[in-house]
Amino acid sequence: MSAISEFHERSFAKLIAEVPEFPLELGIREVAGNRLAMNAFADYSQSGAENRMQGMERSLAELRAFPIDEQTPEERLTTRVFEFFLEYANEGPLLGVRGRDFAEHDQPARPAAGIQTQLPVLLANLHSVADETDAEDYMERLSQLPTVFADLVDGLERREANRNVLPRALLTKTLEEISSFLATDARKSLLHMSLAEKLEAVDDISDGARRSLLDRSEEEIRNSLYPAYSKLETFLTSQLERAPETLGVHRLPDGDAYYDFCLKSATTTNASAEEIHTLGLHELASIEGRLDTAFRDIGYGSGSLIARCQALDNDPKFRQPDTPETRTRMLDDLTKIIATTESQIGTIFDRLPRSPVVVEPTPAFAENSRHHCYQPPASDGSRPGIFELNLSVALAESMLDTTTVCYHETFPGHHLQLALAQELEGLPAVRRMVTFDSYIEGWAKYAETIPWEHGFNSDPLWNVARMRRELVSTANLVLDTGIHQKGWTRDEGMRFFAEQTGSSTEFSEAMVDRIAGNPGQTCSYKIGMLKFLGLRDRMRDRLGDEFHIRQFHTAVLKHGSLPLAILEEVVDKAMTAIAEVDHGQTPRTRD
User: Fold this and answer.
1) Which of 505, 526, 547 is the last residue in one of the domains?
2) Cα dihedral sign for 129, 132, 134, 139?
3) pTM, whole model, 2 decimals?
4) Degrees to nearest 5, angle at CA 358 with 353 and 360
5) How many separate domains does the chain show?
6) Mean pLDDT of 172-192
7) Are residues 477 and 500 in the same domain?
């Protein structure tokens, strides 16, 4: 192994060892021969954040000390990917060095994705228990949550001193989330019941040990975790009277510069907020025209575009009541869609992931704030990919929308791409494990188009519903920049979103609040989608009759997640190599 390759592995291993949530999500226990902690969470204290930042700065300086012209093309690609990550990472406790001045501009207690919800859900859903040691590790992580929440309160106090208090609308939702969690008896809590379910599946734990673990779990939740949650609740309640109505990060010191950082991290482009806002308005006009034509093709020719969207939304044929029976049936139906789609798409992909994917419901206490999401499978095979479906949300929407969500989260979307990335042989860990939102969300939005374009789902009603969801992602370009750069109020944001997409008040509110708590992130979907579609069309135009969609899919998937500029370069090189082979030339070595 070359010196630079050894550095890539060693530095990345050290980095993720300091954020055990990362390997927990990926289901990995070691990187480059280094064992990772299975019984800890990241240090959320101020000193912990500073130590991580200093580690990122040291790694970046060391990386740049390696002469780039002495690296192989593959090593150079890894160096560039790792460099972008070290500069612009912006997820959870990982913050790139370009974000040093904004270390406490984030919203760590935001609803749905804040520490107070994310860590318990990760522990309950993703910590695997194969033996008693794993169970003890689960208990150790459970016992650390009160410290994490105490550090969270300290961090929120520091943020308030810097004029950063969670906006009132979001703060209210977080408090509702915590209240729901505390209202559940310890023995029926997600964390306790999850451990009980995991232990039930392990044969070589004695009944006595199992009872002891569950007794300790109940005691820990009742006597330590719940009091820590209550202290967090008390502190957040005290902030209500001081919480701002303003949603956008422009309210913060250097808020515009912080938003620029968020956009760069999310989109991996140099596009400014103004450019993204303008792009969103242009794309809205474009998709509205295409959607109008698609509606006319299915007989929805009269009325405004929004009225037709709402008519399709509210068609009783695609609605189900929220009952235990329909919840079970929806999970079963989605499982069938996943299996059918996986069996169809082998004709357009050279390779599919070995890891399976399953559908699981969102925990009841998080249904009011948590949206559908996907968790990759464990690299060691101990856990499948998980499509977490918020049944309350899904049953409030059209079944046509739920089908699109399924494509987005599983096949041919997130599961196909992320599970394949884990399984790529010969790539360093950083290339298999690091993700960039514009790539992974752009791929998943592009993947929503595949069933229609390749005849796997020929229902024109579904395709209109799919385009409607693309309309939502397009409107988000304008909404995100409107809130954070132009200073839109919550009411203005909700009104714009509802008028542009025909969405309900509830969904419009949820989208505005999501964007308020995670600036820039929703811009990654449509910007990434446009890049994938543009590169596909470019390859098709250049190769002509020799083009096959498998070539494009292989080119964009075989390198792992990439910033969009680098993705464009690798696709251009793939096109050149294919064209030279097809014309009988010997491919030249290229940097």
Assistant:
1) 526
2) positive
3) 0.95
4) 150
5) 3
6) 95
7) yes
